[in-house]
Amino acid sequence: MKREDYISWDQYFMGIALMSAHRSKDPNTQVGACIVDQNNKILSIGYNGMPRGCNDDEMPWEREGEVLDTKYAYVCHAELNAILNYSGGSLEGAKVYVTLFPCNECAKAIIQCGIKEIIYKSDKYMDSAATIASKRMFDMAGVKYRQYVSGDRNLVIKL
């Protein structure tokens, strides 16, 4: 008889997105993403951070102040990083697991590359214009989105 307490695909891929978020050096918000195909094959992962070649020790991580003195003008979001990290061709029909609901800029990239479903953990900015715009675009483009439903199971990984 096979084991029955194995984790689901949603738990597995959201776990990878959560683990990826731990690579982020952002002191306030760590986000991870995992893109998978229709056969549950991992295509790419990403996390929020500074663009390649930009020294994250010299870049600003502040949340408030003049735009050029904050992280917002520079940080590449997890979803976009996962899309850009993929080098295998089309992402048409893929799903993305992400720890935070995508902003409007990432929504555009998700739609344009053909991802058809978003599974997100948190929607803490649900009332923001960026999230409302994302949902409008996803609805118009036929991109499904659903909140990840976690169970009561805890997994502990010692690294």
Question: Could you explain the architecture of this structure?
Answer:
The chain is α/β, with parallel strands linked by helices and 159 residues long. 28% of the residues lie in helices and 17% in strands. It has helices spanning 9-21, 78-85, 104-113, 129-141; strands spanning 32-36, 42-47, 95-100, 117-122, 144-147. It has a five-stranded mixed β-sheet. α3 packs parallel to α4 (129-141). The model has no long low-confidence stretch (mean pLDDT 96).
Strand fraction band? 15-25%
Mean pLDDT across every amino acid position: 96
Number of strands: 5
Give the % helix.
Answer: 25-40%
Order of helices and strands: HEEHEHEHE
Largest β sheet strand count, sense and barrel closure: 5 strands, mixed
Q: Note the overall shape.
A: globular
Class from helix and strand fractions: alpha/beta
Task: Describe the strand arrangement of the main beta sheet, using strand numbers.
Answer: 2-1-3-4-5
Contiguous uncertain segments of 5+ residues: none
Gap from first CA to last CA:
31 Å
Question: With helices defined by DSSP (H or I, 4 residues minimum), what is the helix count?
Answer: 4
Integer-rounded radius of gyration: 16 Å
